[in-house]
Amino acid sequence: MDDKPSIAQAVEAAQKLGDDELRQVLEILSDELRHRYRRADQIAAAALRVGDWVEMTQGGGKKLPTGAKGHIIKFRKEQVDIHFPEHGTFGVSAVALRKIDKPPAGCPKPEPDV
Questions:
Q1: This prediction's pTM
Q2: Do 92 and 46 meet the contact criterion of CB atoms below 8 Å apart?
């Protein structure tokens, strides 16, 4: 049997904490969540290479919709730089990407030389 507390029990316990104690718990949880996201990004990025074509599986805001397609131009510490021909170049989390086949026509609007 699993001896983890239920979510309801954890919330109930958190409600009984003072402000400083709750702040400490939230800092610990924030660090843990940040670590898990970073690890998920590393795992997702390991399957990708510069030049691969990808599709956004999660929306990137108003300028970069879900389903936008582009190709990887560079890997950075926290993000992957992607050139989206219809939208420009953006830094995106690797977990928001899905590898796809290269379009038959290639890139209709190559990224500008910087």
A1: 0.64
A2: no
Backbone angle region of 11, left / alpha / beta, with phi > 0 → left and psi within -120 to 50 → alpha: alpha
Q: Measured between alpha carbons, how far is 94 from 50 in angstroms, rounded to an integer?
A: 12
Beta strand residue intervals within 1-109, DSSP E: 53-56, 69-75, 80-84, 88-92, 97-100
Question: Tens digits of per-residue pLDDT, 34-47?
Answer: 898 888 877 877 88
- Compute the distance between CA of residue 105 and CA of residue 23 in angstroms, rounded to an integer: 53
Per DSSP, 36 falls in state H
The contacts of residue 55 (CB under 8 Å, 6+ apart) are 67, 68, 69, 97, 98, 100
Tracing tokens 């397609």 back to the chain, one arrives at 69
Q: From residue 111, how far is each of 43, 60, 68, 84 by CA, in Å?
A: 27, 19, 15, 8
Other C-beta atoms closer than 10 Å to the C-beta of 36 total 10
